[in-house]
Design goal:
Layout (H helix, E strand, L loop, with lengths): L3 E4 L5 H8 L17 H6 L2 H14 L4 E6 L2 E10 L26 E9 L8 H15 L4 E4 L16 H6 L3 E5 L5 E6 L1
Parallel strand pairs: 4-5
Antiparallel strand pairs: 1-2, 2-3, 3-4, 5-7, 6-7
């Protein structure tokens, strides 16, 4: 059975916080890695990141989507306009935008972070999140969605950017390779 997919709105905060747990998902990041400048991330602890993300969700628009099973959030995908995740756009990153899809173009979106509950891993949830994210992007005027996943990883947590294989299955194609194993991939909607 496919999970229910819903945008992360303020009324979903409790479900999001429960999914991320006390630690805040990936070592207390609370999905701020691509949103905050490195100097801000370094001075923040998990509580500051949590407060920052709660405020971001409250301010809107939704910064991503949640997957639900039996009313409980089991997965998260950060998806939205590239401009909303400034560190994803840094010229020094493998995810830097290409000339034909600049970060300031609001119709160019990115899928930048995943988090899946441990009990829900290895069940194809990433694919459901990607497809739900594509629908969400399409409904909100995106013409292109990009991602910069990994070809392989030693740990599920280090796959927070997603797996290249899952993006290929969803119809994404590689458009740049600045570092071996980290392709910039794109799907035109």
């Amino acid at each position: 059975m496919a999970p229910e997919i819903a945008p992360l709105t303020p009324d979903q905060w409790d479900a999001f916080a429960e999914l991320f747990g006390v630690q805040g998902a990936c070592y207390g990041c609370w999905c701020t890695y691509f949103r905050l400048a490195p100097k801000d991330r370094q001075k923040n602890d998990r509580n500051a990141n949590k407060a920052w993300m709660k405020q971001r969700i409250k301010a809107g628009p939704p910064p991503g989507i949640l997957a639900f099973e039996e009313g409980q959030a089991i997965g998260w995908l950060q998806v939205g306009p590239r401009a909303d995740i400034p560190q994803f756009n840094s010229a020094r990153r493998v995810s830097a935008p290409l000339d034909d899809a600049p970060a300031d173009d609001t119709s160019v979106w990115a899928m930048s972070c995943f988090f899946v509950a441990k009990a829900a891993r290895r069940r194809g949830l990433s694919g459901h999140l990607i497809n739900g994210g594509l629908d969400f992007a399409r409904q909100n005027g995106a013409r292109v969605v990009e991602a910069c996943p990994m070809d392989r990883s030693k740990s599920p947590l280090s796959l927070f950017v997603g797996s290249s294989h899952v993006f290929e299955q969803a119809g994404f194609q590689q458009v740049a390779l600045r570092k071996e194993g980290r392709p910039l991939m794109r799907k035109v909607l």
